């Protein structure tokens, strides 16, 4: 019976799916889009990705396995130096991209999947043949900026209204965690009747299993036994200073012999076009210098997938420092590589990390983080025990609601 049902499913024509994404870089959102697109392609769907910016040299390697098209990169990303007006520019770029795809690109598709910017959704309502629209909400954009002046509040008011109104126009709305689902309901008052489905991001485990970890001699000084790893974009909201402050606290907790065997690698997405990336990288380097941590910290910007997997394979634990992270793909990657995670006890990590089983959930202060790190140094076998539990957590059926392409399309039928 099961074989017959599978055969019948194979006979059903697979949908043609178009992904629309603002900027195909190296963040968690891009990781999700690529993994979802690859999974759908593997199941026989005709998949294409359209984006306003794509640089193969600054993107995940798997993007080369998909047809990626770009339009509208000539439009500005901001209004003047300092990134002012980024939200308006992002809306304009995505609306232009949607118009280009619909009226100039001669694309044929059944379903469009868009994320981050919902302003493009009304454009697809203009199609002659009705398109099904899925919107993946990583987090409400209106909560990602401060309103510290009257002009800023005035500027954001129409943008916030557009975001809420156009999000409600999607046929199906997905969010990345129960945390984001609760924030969605609380934030979008006019959409209180909508219960977004939670669809956790997952991993393309094939890409992890196919890589042979390489030696880290060029990144880690000799004699280092306890390798700590931080993976996050060079943005202030990621609270990367917490990892450095925890390292300072750890220095006072260890013997000089153990301390000399500790090393932290700060690996993160870095884009020279983004002013905050440039500024924050310099801020972190200055902090290392002032704290006399120069020989205990290595900075790695825009690393390759092979480097990331090699680091996860070799490190003692991962330090995941952002508070109220919407979901966080890094803990999943770490746990799959049997690497425990020390994370802040808020947001998405509460759903992906089992405290004292696959890692530790701590208050966002350097003392608590250093105490958790010390446990791995005092009890080296803890890494292996938690690592096995973490791998089991991430494997199929371990994290309920993980990315399954079929889930999305049953919601659109």
Describe the protein's architecture and organization:
With 413 residues, this protein is α/β, with parallel strands linked by helices. The chain folds into two domains: 7-199, Glycogen Phosphorylase B (Rossmann fold); 206-394, Glycogen Phosphorylase B (Rossmann fold), CATH 3.40.50.2000. It contains 16 helices and 13 strands. The chain has helices at residues 2-11, 28-42, 86-103, 121-124, 150-167, 178-187, 205-209, 241-251, 256-259, 275-290, 305-314, 329-336, 349-352, 366-378, 381-394, 405-412; strands at 16-21, 46-51, 68-70, 111-115, 132-137, 172-175, 197-198, 226-231, 262-268, 297-301, 317-320, 341-344, 359-362. The strands form two sheets. Strands 3-2-1-4-5-6-7 form a seven-stranded parallel beta sheet, with helices on both faces. Strand 6, helix 6 and strand 7 (197-198) form a beta-alpha-beta unit. The longest helix is centred in the first third of the chain and has 18 residues, at 86-103. It is globular.
Overall CATH class of the largest domain: Alpha Beta
Q: Biggest sheet, open or closed, and with what strands and sense?
A: 7 strands, parallel
CATH topology assignment of the largest domain: Rossmann fold
Task: Classify the oligomer.
Answer: single chain
Question: Low-confidence spans: pLDDT under 50, at least 5 residues?
Answer: 403-413
């Amino acid at each position: 019976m099961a074989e017959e049902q599978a055969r019948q499913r194979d006979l059903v024509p697979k949908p043609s799916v178009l992904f629309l994404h603002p900027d195909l870089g190296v963040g968690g959102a891009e990781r999700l889009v690529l993994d979802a697109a690859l999974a759908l392609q593997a199941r026989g769907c005709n998949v294409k990705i359209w984006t306003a910016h794509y640089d193969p040299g600054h993107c995940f390697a798997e993007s080369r396995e998909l047809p990626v098209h770009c339009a509208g990169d000539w439009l500005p990303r901001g209004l003047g130096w300092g990134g002012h007006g980024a939200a308006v520019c992002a809306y304009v770029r995505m609306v232009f991209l949607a118009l280009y795809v619909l009226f100039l690109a001669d694309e044929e598709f059944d379903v469009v999947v868009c994320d981050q910017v919902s302003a493009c959704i009304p454009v697809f309502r203009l199609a002659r043949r009705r398109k099904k629209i899925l919107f993946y909400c990583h987090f409400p954009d209106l909560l990602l900026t401060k309103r510290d002046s009257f002009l800023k509040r005035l500027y954001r008011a129409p943008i916030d209204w557009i975001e809420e109104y156009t999000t409600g126009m999607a046929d199906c709305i997905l969010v990345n965690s129960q945390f984001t689902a609760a924030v969605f309901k609380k934030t979008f008052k006019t959409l209180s009747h909508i219960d977004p489905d939670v669809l956790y991001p997952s991993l393309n485990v094939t890409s992890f299993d196919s890589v042979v970890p390489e030696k880290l001699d060029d990144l880690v000084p000799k004699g280092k036994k306890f390798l700590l790893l931080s993976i996050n974009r060079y943005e202030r909201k990621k609270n990367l200073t917490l990892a450095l402050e925890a390292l300072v606290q750890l220095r006072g907790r260890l013997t000089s012999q153990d301390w000399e065997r500790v090393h932290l690698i700060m690996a993160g997405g870095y884009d020279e076009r983004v002013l905050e990336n440039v500024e924050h990288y310099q801020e972190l380097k200055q902090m290392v210098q002032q704290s006399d941590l120069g020989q205990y910290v290595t900075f790695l910007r825009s690393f390759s997938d092979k480097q990331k997997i090699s680091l996860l394979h070799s490190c003692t634990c991962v330090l995941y420092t952002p508070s109220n992270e919407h979901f966080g793909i890094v803990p999943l990657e770490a746990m799959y590589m049997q690497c425990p995670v020390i994370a802040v006890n808020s947001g998405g990590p509460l759903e992906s990390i089992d405290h004292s089983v696959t890692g530790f959930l701590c208050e966002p202060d350097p003392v608590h983080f250093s105490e958790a790190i010390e446990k791995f140094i005092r009890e080296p076998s803890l890494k292996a025990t938690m690592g096995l539990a973490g791998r089991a957590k991430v494997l199929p059926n371990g994290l309920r609601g993980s990315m399954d392409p079929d889930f999305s399309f049953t919601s659109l039928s």
